[in-house]
Write a structure and sequence with these properties.
The protein has about 140 residues and is mainly beta. It is built from two helices and 15 strands.
């Protein structure tokens, strides 16, 4: 699927290039906030160009917290530390509890979008870790 076809299927829109968090991504990502700042939970459509993925990261919380991903367009990956990757397609839902080290992004030959919801909780924060190496991305076993 080329970029134009992808954009037609991405009903929540690609949004602007995600420059504020670009240091935590390999490749370009785009961000389209769907809820107002300060609304909880915060919902945003995140789009990844082919091959783009975010760094390993952990959503921290004293209680509650975590993240919910609702896959809406294209094809991507989700991987928790120490586990095999999970292929993602539109309609897939990923529940990520607080404290789980993980990454997510597009497959190398396809655009990918998911709605990310930062789940409310006490003492929530994000801890960005090391980049996902090309070897980890291309040879997940």
């Amino acid at each position: 699927m080329n970029e134009k076809e992808f954009e037609m299927s991405n009903v929540f829109g690609k949004g602007a290039e995600n420059t504020a968090y670009s240091r935590f991504f390999i490749g370009r990502s785009y961000l389209n906030p769907l809820t107002s700042p300060g609304f909880s939970p915060l919902f945003a459509n995140v789009t990844f160009e082919p091959g783009c993925r975010n760094n390993w990261h952990v959503h921290r919380a004293v209680s509650g917290g975590g993240q919910l991903l609702l896959c809406v367009a294209g094809s991507g990956w989700y991987r928790e530390w120490g586990k095999p990757p999970r292929s993602l397609s539109p309609g897939d839902v990923v529940e990520i509890p607080a404290g789980v080290k993980h990454w997510h992004g597009a497959k190398k030959d396809c655009w990918f979008s998911h709605i990310a919801a930062a789940m409310p909780g006490e003492g929530v924060s994000d801890e960005w870790l090391e980049p996902v190496s090309d070897d980890e991305y291309e040879n997940p076993d």
